[in-house]
Specification:
The chain is mainly alpha-helical. About 45% of the residues lie in helices and about 10% in strands. The protein has helices at about 25-40, 60-70, 95-105, 115-130, 145-155, 200-210, 225-235, 265-270, 275-285, 300-305, 320-335, 335-350, 360-370, 380-390, 405-425, 430-440, 445-460, 465-475, 475-490, and strands at about 10-15, 45, 110-115, 160, 170-175, 180-185, 190-195, 215-220, 245, 250, 315-320. Strand 1 (about 10-15), helix 1 and strand 2 form a beta-alpha-beta unit. Helix 16 (about 430-440) packs across helix 18. It is elongated, with a radius of gyration of 33 Å. The termini are far apart. About 35% of the residues are buried. The structure holds glutamic acid (GLU). Glutamic acid (GLU) binds near residues 15, 205, 219 and 223. Glutamic acid binds next to loops.
């Protein structure tokens, strides 16, 4: 593992293509690169690979940057911040790629190809029919100078292809996967510059990894088959290639490719579903890497101090939405109450009925300790706490009558509650509970029955945070009012 020691002057990059919104896999790649840069005091660069003009999705770049912002993955060079190796949008670097590709043509290492779409289609069909290896048949590689001149004079569209060596092997010493070797004869003469003047991914990625002085390329495993092409191109251009590390695939718990049915796939959907960015980061750190064999909850500094490719797995990583939800609950429990209240606020504004708004922050701060333990997602809170905010509770009055009670005993229980609560010297949960227990005994009702009735009256629910703390937060007046309403509704409910 001598290669791993090259950790001075680390420069790594995250190179999203704005052809879709960022998903979990993209951001795991960004995160691992970022951690690696932090670990080695290096630079983390964001480069937008927008060379596939037909597939650009409006808003995709902004969504990628917003996802990085949300997760606290900051970058040293790239969009918005600039840097000494810019521009960081490939569409603004076309002349650089063109010049390098032209040089390769001049040196006989690349060539212009004039084949039309129709010809290539026929070629592919023929290859499929005769079960030959598919790929460009190198027709234009062998054109004479006269034939070339004629094609140029005809003025048809052309592309620049790389002349891949026809024999020999290309090998990469991948920092995660070890030595991987390809026979050059299986690599076809891939395109460097397309007919619209844009480079292909291969051309642009090699050029920019070199010019931006990238030391390590850490990317998804799906790019491993492209690596021999990149190495060939680095060599032809006289570049010293970076080191490569291909990160393991991410699968769902059923070991199929991660998709919507395993939970959200787009990163910002997790924010909208009420996940904390700290929890998602912690979770993603463990998708393919581990600190040791057991630690799940890790501080950012622990991860940065210990992050390394030695503990990145080769085997596919499993994305377990349930574990993420569990972890989110753990993080919610650890948050200071004020912070949690601030994070909950937008979800209440969004999730509570209009008449409950605006939410009073001080009131919310008193609710937070009652729900913090039980909250797994910030989106749970509106439903869980709605009764704290409602003016009128909507429930079937029959629910006030607990098992083994009738209407009269339920009414008697509510009347006793009214008396105790009105007479209580201070409205605090401990004395309140003590007084109400005595009242329950006086009526020969079990605490389960008596408090069940009271709970439904005060909250409209059968299950709530601890009843007496809840009532203390609701306040004496509101509780008395609700009990009065419950009595009237039960009285009228014949
Ligand atoms: N633009 C490629 C992507 O979106 C990046 C591949 C690479 O990192 O080389 O996945």
């Amino acid at each position: 593992m001598e290669k791993l020691t090259r950790t001075d002057n680390v420069r790594v990059r995250f190179a999203p293509s704005p052809t879709g919104f960022p998903h979990i896999g993209n951001i795991r790649t960004a995160l691992f690169n970022w951690l690696f840069a932090k670990r080695h005091g290096g630079k983390f660069i964001v480069r937008v690979e927008d060379t596939d003009q037909d597939r650009l999705v409006p808003g995709a770049t902004d969504a990628v940057l917003a996802a990085l912002d949300w997760l606290g993955i900051d970058w040293d060079e790239g969009p918005r911040v600039g840097g000494p190796f810019g521009p960081y949008l490939q569409s603004e670097r076309l002349d650089i790629y063109q010049k390098l590709a032209d040089d390769l043509v001049d040196r006989g290492l690349a060539y212009r190809c004039y084949c039309t779409e129709e010809r290539l289609k026929e070629m592919r069909e023929e290859q499929a029919r005769s079960k030959e290896r598919t790929g460009y048949d190198r027709l234009c590689r062998n054109l004479s100078q006269d034939e070339r001149n004629r094609k140029e004079d005809e003025g048809g569209r052309s592309v620049i292809r790389f002349a891949v060596p026809k024999s020999g092997v290309t090998a990469v010493s991948d920092l995660i996967r070890g030595e991987v070797v390809w026979q050059n004869e299986v690599l076809d003469d891939f395109i460097l510059i397309k007919s619209d003047g844009f480079p292909t991914y291969h051309m642009a990625v090699v050029t920019d990894d070199h010019l931006m002085e990238i030391s390590h390329v850490m990317r998804a495993e799906e790019w491993l088959p492209s690596t021999p092409r990149h190495l060939q191109l680095h060599q032809a251009l006289g570049f010293d290639p970076p080191q490569f590390a291909h990160l393991p695939m991410i699968l769902g718990p059923d070991r199929s490719k991660l998709s919507k049915r395993h939970g959200a796939t787009f990163v910002l959907d997790y924010r909208d579903q009420g996940f904390l960015h700290e929890a998602l980061v912690n979770f993603l750190e463990l998708v393919g890497w581990s600190l040791d064999d057991h630690t799940e909850i890790m501080t950012p500094s622990t991860v940065i101090e210990n992050f390394g490719l030695e503990r990145v797995n080769k085997a596919p990583a499993i994305f377990d939405y349930e574990k993420l939800t569990w972890m989110n609950g753990m993080y919610i429990r650890q948050l200071p109450e004020e912070d949690l209240a601030d994070r909950i606020m937008p979800f209440l504004e969004d999730g509570l009925p209009k008449e409950c708004l605006p939410v009073d922050r001080d009131y919310l701060l008193r609710i937070v300790p009652l729900i913090q333990e039980r909250t797994k997602l910030l989106t749970d809170v509106a439903e869980m706490s709605e009764f704290f905010f409602q003016t009128d509770l909507d429930f079937d009055p029959q629910r006030l009558i607990q098992k083994g009670m009738d209407r009269q005993t339920a009414l008697a229980a509510l009347a006793a509650c009214q008396t105790e609560i009105s007479n209580a010297k201070i409205f605090e949960h401990e004395p309140l509970e003590a007084a109400l227990r005595v009242a329950a005994t006086g009526l020969e009702l079990s605490p389960r029955q008596f408090f069940g009735t009271l709970r439904v009256a005060a909250t409209g629910r059968d299950a709530t945070p601890p009843l007496f703390e809840t009532m203390e937060v609701l306040g004496r007046e509101r509780v008395l009012d609700r009990i009065q309403q419950a009595i009237s509704r039960l009285g009228d409910s014949d």
